[in-house]
Design a protein that fits this description.
With 671 residues, the chain is mainly beta. It is 4% helix and 29% strand. A hairpin with a 6-residue loop joins strand 28 and strand 29. It is globular. 60% of the residues are buried. The chain binds calcium ion (7 copies). One calcium ion binds next to loops.
């Protein structure tokens, strides 16, 4: 049954808040009522909470899962998919927002509800105050002209004409964003990158937030930094815990890559990241497992320049729910020769370049942890499984052991400041696109373009008329083309630019122009606006070379930069004047992901004074129905790696854009 996970965890008090957004009518007067109240101060309506009989009395199932008087699951088992990849069992993600002309209502279609052979099998009935207002057969959003801020909404799956499970109940936001109060760990801290995972199994995402001190450093800069912290936040503003990474983890974009994913498949997300002596988990305790059992937590391994080039390095898996240390092992690959990671920069620059992600690598369909070190020269990736409370190594790739691919192209110096995860071959597991090279799911080097390092990376179906997916990257090496577009399964080059001898520092590939089939690509310097399909020059190049986001009603993607969303060839669609972007000139959001509502992406920005995060959701109506992007394994992995180094926007495994084909059914199941 759809709600079996919830009922199994009914004893958890946090669940009393878990069935709806903070703005819902679910009672907010439980042990976490302070959090609910502070959310309300941001404008989210909470009225009517005490009048909701279904959600009171500690039985949220009664309110959310079983509408009064009906056997809503009378049609038998609900679909849960039988594909390879284990994905999250999410709730309906229902959101309602007061807009001009009524109330916008949006919600998610689950990936396993989508039948491309017979899409009409599934529809959704929208209810206001217990009465049906519409049935949606080809979209997952609706403008309810008769709705108001006091309305209460639910949505029921209609499968083969039979109404089935009912969603959580919500009341409308009175503004276009959810405000999540946050608390800096000290003066001189900024809220930085985010991630998302369902830590308690209720089907609603929690957010993870990295706090970065103002004295964080790029690896090229010496100097001591203050501690880095990670918080977990419920959408109602409750802070679940705070991890302090301690003095032996340096603050800066290249050091802490925090990966949130349900690695053991128990329905609750974990957090995996590099740790060190001095790290305190979310309960406040120093690490104590594995090699950390003998750690000297008072040790200060920083050298005079603030670099940490000695001392133990760990990989720790933390509970997403409590922040408790679950397992710690020795981080691999270790520093070894500090000067051995490219350019002989032995002062601590190239050795401490870390990337990381979740990826589905083994035959279980569950996620594994990939922790990588080095990309300017020696490049290493180590895959780990966290299962049954244990961390075990799945494989290790080292360009010192495998310097080239079969054609002689190098596996050294190919990495970008991010990485991507996609299925690029015939097996269902995912491969790692490590900049200009691909590592197979089993840890073998698959191929390399040999064009070397770059600062950005975009992997998706950029050329819909061509089978498979494509990868795009600008290159730093002045001896390489300014950019390349290639097949990440073979590393065959599809298009590449002339080389004007410059470092092309920024580049994007995405479908933003409906007049050109498939994706466009553009980059800094003299690179024009180009068709990914033909490499022909198109119209005017966007001034933004940063994130992209699906926001308005059409399938083309929009531009996201700073704290503004802009339509290509049009104007600004959304801007937050009270917000700030992250990472200096990179101007990236805290997080962009399909967190709730329909398939279009939510954007998370911090308020400029770090008092709150704001989660904006679209209220533009769309006729397009697509299952939640979080049920596309490639997109879900991308949310795990979005925070890594120089953040890049997520991309799904299939084409979304003007003239798009219906998406394929995802090869997934949920527990
Ligand atoms: Ca949750
Ligand atoms: Ca888990
Ligand atoms: Ca594969
Ligand atoms: Ca393609
Ligand atoms: Ca296009
Ligand atoms: Ca659009
Ligand atoms: Ca969404």
């Amino acid at each position: 049954m759809s709600f079996s996970i919830r009922s199994r965890h009914l004893s958890l008090p946090a669940l009393a808040l878990g069935f709806a957004f903070a703005c819902s009518s679910t009672p907010q007067d439980g042990p976490d009522g302070g959090g609910g109240g502070s959310t309300a101060s941001g404008g989210a309506a909470t009225g009517g909470s005490s009048e909701d009989p279904g959600a009171t009395g500690g039985s949220p199932i009664g309110g959310a899962g079983a509408p009064s008087g009906g056997d809503s699951n009378g049609g038998g088992e609900l679909p849960r998919g039988d594909g390879f990849h284990r994905m999250e069992k999410l709730d309906r993600g229902l959101v309602a927002v007061v807009v001009d002309g009524g109330v916008y209502v949006g919600f998610r279609m689950h990936g396993y509800e989508y039948d491309p052979e017979n899409p009409g099998r599934v529809a959704y009935a929208v209810y206001r105050d217990g009465a049906q207002v519409t049935t949606l057969e080809s979209s997952t959003n609706y403008l309810d002209a008769d709705g108001s801020a006091d309305s209460r909404y639910t949505v029921r799956l209609v499968l083969d004409g039979v109404e089935r499970d009912e969603s959580e109940e919500v009341t409308p936001w009175t503004q276009e964003y959810l405000r999540i109060p946050i608390e800096p760990p000290g003066a001189n801290y900024q809220a930085n990158d985010g991630s998302a995972g369902d830590v308690d199994g209720d089907g609603q995402y929690e957010l993870f937030l990295k706090w970065e001190p103002n004295n964080a450093k790029d690896n090229s800069q010496s100097g001591h930094t203050d501690d880095v912290y990670i918080d977990a936040l419920k959408l109602d503003g409750t802070r679940l815990w705070r991890i302090n990474l301690g003095r032996n983890i340096r603050a800066g974009a290249h050091y802490t890559q925090f990966i949130v994913y349900d690695f053991d498949g128990d329905g609750k997300a974990e957090l995996a990241m590099k740790t060190a002596p001095g790290t305190r988990d979310g309960t406040g305790a120093f690490l104590s497992k594995g090699p950390a059992a003998t750690a000297n937590h008072d040790a200060d391994y920083r050298n005079d320049g603030g670099y940490i080039l000695t001392g133990p390095e760990y990989l720790t898996v933390f509970s997403g729910e409590t922040g408790e240390e679950l397992a710690t092992t020795t981080f691999e690959v270790g520093r070894e020769n500090v000067s051995g990671w490219g350019n002989d920069e032995g002062y601590g620059n190239r050795v401490d370049r870390f990337l990381a992600t979740a990826a589905h690598l083994d035959d279980t369909g569950l996620g594994s942890i990939v922790m990588a070190r080095g990309y300017y020269g020696r490049s290493t990736l180590t895959a780990w499984n966290f299962r049954d409370g244990e961390l075990t190594q799945l494989w290790k790739f080292d360009s010192n052991q495998t310097p080239t691919d079969a054609s002689g192209n190098r596996f050294t110096g190919q990495g970008a400041h991010s990485l991507s995860v996609a299925n690029v071959d015939d097996d269902p597991q995912q491969e790692i696109i490590y900049g200009a090279m691909t590592i197979d799911h089993d840890g073998k080097g698959l191929c390399s373009t040999n064009y070397g390092h770059g600062d950005a990376l975009h992997v998706t179906d950029l050329i819909p008329s061509r089978p498979g997916i494509e990868a795009f990257m600008p290159h730093e090496n002045t001896a390489s083309p300014d950019w390349t577009l290639w097949d990440p399964g073979t590393c065959e080059i599809i298009h590449k630019s002339p080389n004007d001898g410059t470092d092309t520092g920024r580049g994007v590939a995405a479908d933003i122009d409906p007049d050109n089939p498939g994706a466009e690509m553009w980059a800094s310097g003299g690179v024009p606006f180009l068709s990914a399909t033909t490499a022909q020059t198109l119209g005017s190049k966007p001034s933004q070379i940063n994130f992209v986001i699906w926001w308005d009603g059409d399938e083309s993607r929009e531009l996201e930069d700073g704290t503004t969303i802009t339509k290509y060839g049009g104007g600004s669609l959304l801007t937050c004047g009270q917000c700030a972007s992250n990472n200096g000139t990179k101007s990236t959001p805290t997080l962009s992901a399909d967190l709730f509502g329909d398939w279009r992406e939510e954007i998370v920005w911090r308020e400029s004074n770090n008092a709150a995060l704001r989660v904006y959701t679209t209220t533009h109506l769309t006729q397009r129905r697509i299952y939640t992007l979080m049920h596309d394994p490639q997109y879900r992995a991308a949310i795990s790696w979005q925070n890594v180094a120089y953040n890049q926007p997520p991309h799904p495994s299939f084409h979304i854009g003007a003239g798009m084909a219906d998406p394929p059914a995802p090869d997934i199941h949920v527990r």
